């Protein structure tokens, strides 16, 4: 599967994981090095010039859609915004599908469980207004809005999910992205499902499973801090529980 | 909600342990001023209500705190669940509690 490159161009030895949920192995490609080359450029070059059967996922190519995350030299990264010269070691790269998610084929993961957990964490907005009530007026400078804003720029790339050891240990754990989303909504003054959401994130697979290892905060490409959001949820759930305001919920595993 | 309750119990027990550790360190320094002699130390600890209360509470808090921590390790690293997990967690709690209270009793009871 090795692909020779023009002798005048430096090449990168790229190991790419190939396979499916049943297993797989690495193929190695020699990819010509280019200025300002991203990891996504490398993967695209392989698919267009070396092996058209390589499967991967991307959309916007500018760091907005969260589709192209992969493991690069063992670290989860958004490949469209990751420059080769910043992550290459000894002129070589190892590219794998995201950790903690089932593989569909090659570098494309099945994101179903990731988005299902958003739903389980009540990661959607519950408003009380109708289209006849007009737009809610919020101060962007209120402390609560600032907290909500700090957690709101998630692009659903699942890099935090791939970096989380607790997800690896406990497959039911809701994960950093879903909990970060729940925290943002808990601080949205327009949302009216706070109690229900606290019950959802306070379950046996919820926020109290987090060990605050901060892998999510370390690797989030948008520099969000899901660990801090989860810590906020822990405090919020605790206060509700102590006050007797936490609704019981029959979901979650029972250990 | 079991996990959340265990989380709360572990934090409360940690809040109890922290000041007791400081008291323990201070007490050690105080206790050896007259020399590190078993008979001399036992003369102070035997029959002492405050010594028994301090270390008795310490043992109970440690048994709760450590058993929950061990349960987390067993759950996450060894994927134990259900009866096996509960049995091992309660066993570690009982072991720590009984051995700790036995040690406290040995130096307090006349």
Account of the protein in words:
- The complex is a heterodimer of chains A (255) and B (110).
- With 255 residues, chain A is an alpha+beta fold.
- Chain A has 2 domains: 11-109, Beta-grasp domain (Ubiquitin-like (UB roll), Roll); 112-243, Fumarate Reductase Iron-sulfur Protein, Chain B, domain 2, CATH 1.10.1060.10.
- Chain A has helices spanning 39-50, 84-87, 112-120, 143-150, 159-163, 165-169, 176-186, 194-201, 215-219, 226-243, and strands at 11-20, 23-32, 69-72, 75-78, 92-96, 103-105, 108-109.
- In chain A, the strands form 2 sheets. In chain A, strands 2-1-5-3-4 form a 5-stranded mixed sheet. Chain A has a two-stranded antiparallel ribbon with strand order 6-7.
- In chain A, a hairpin with a 2-residue loop joins strand 6 and strand 7.
- The longest helix of chain A is centred in the C-terminal third of the chain and has 18 residues, at 226-243.
- Chain B is built from 4 helices and no strands.
- The mean pLDDT of chain B is 92.
- Chain B has one domain: Up-down Bundle (3 helical TM bundles of succinate and fumarate reductases), CATH 1.20.1300.
- In chain B, helix 1 (2-31) crosses helix 3 (49-77).
- Helix content of chain B is 85%, strand content 0%.
- At the A-B interface, helix 10 of A face helix 1, helix 3 and helix 4 of B.
